[in-house]
Design brief:
The protein is mostly beta strands. The chain has two helices and eight strands. The chain has a single domain (3-28, 40-170), classed as Porin (Beta Barrel), CATH 2.40.160.
Length: 171
């Protein structure tokens, strides 16, 4: 993926997510109470941008727990980000707890998520951090493919951060 196409995705995905989220909603979706499933697992792969234009790889594992609150779930994520190279190299492992608010529109459900967690960076140590993002998931039989874009920050001066774009599958 070129730097230009990655920048396009960074601009397009959030805009598309917000546009779909605030479009009309079918009556059936408005009457939904709580979550569709009490528990789901997911995996994802993607790319992660680091300050300075470095792009690396990402692996994600998720555990989503339904709540009694309408369209709101709790999601626990474990992510591994790796940037190759002598000058931009490094690895970051994170464990985060997130709130996910989705807005079903037919088979699609755009969502906002944000949370807190711990980040372990190679050669630096561990730190507390925050993350927020947008995504969209679809319901196709028992599978739920998703795409999301997030920003992770684990230092007060915002120098320790990453922006991953993830394609995944929840079941």
């Amino acid at each position: 993926m070129t730097r230009a196409s990655f920048k396009f995705l960074l601009a397009f995905v959030p805009a598309a997510g917000f546009a779909v989220m605030f479009c009309g909603v079918s009556a059936g979706a408005q009457q939904q109470q709580g979550s569709e499933r009490p528990l789901s697992f997911g995996v994802g792969l993607g790319v992660a941008a680091k300050p300075g234009g470095s792009i690396g790889s990402l692996g994600l594992g998720t555990l989503e727990l339904g709540t009694p609150w309408r369209n709101t779930d709790v999601r626990l994520d474990a992510a591994f980000m790796n940037w190759p190279g002598r000058f931009s190299g490094g690895r970051v492992t994170s464990l985060t707890s997130n709130l996910v608010y989705s807005h079903p529109v037919g088979i699609f459900a755009p969502y906002l998520l944000g949370g807190i967690g711990g980040y372990a960076e190679q050669g630096v140590g561990t730190a507390f951090g925050v993350n927020a993002g947008v995504g969209i998931k679809a319901s196709v039989r028992r599978l739920r493919p998703f795409v999301e874009l997030r920003e992770h920050v684990w230092s007060a001066d915002r120098t320790r951060r990453a922006t991953p774009l993830t394609l995944g599958l929840a079941f």
